Amino acid sequence: QVQLVESGGGLVQAGGSLTLSCAASGLTSRNYAMGWFRQAPGKEREAVAVKSWPGGFTYYPDAVKGRFTISRDGAKNTVYLQMNSLKPEDTAVYYCAASDRFQVVSSLYNYWGQGTQVTVSS
Fold it and tell me: Cα(9)–Cα(27) distance, rounded to whole angstroms?
């Protein structure tokens, strides 16, 4: 059984940085993708970072490109989202998700964490 648990959310001032972690367990496929998504009140869920292994495909939308970085710690089976130069519009609940293929559509992901709140103050 696949389980994803996010952590690291909190309150940060605009311009600051924050790192989210996603501890994964039960992943058995050799090829997979991990995605970070966010959802703000009244807005649709959107991908902010997606990366596949071992192919190495990576996706960032323009809204976060150059500010967010997705990475993996294989030894700890953990995926990270490093967020720099945070803006108030980055405020949302952030989720990590797992898929058996590289994709950016949230509805096509099979496994989800429960989310962690990120709030960026002005």
Answer: 23
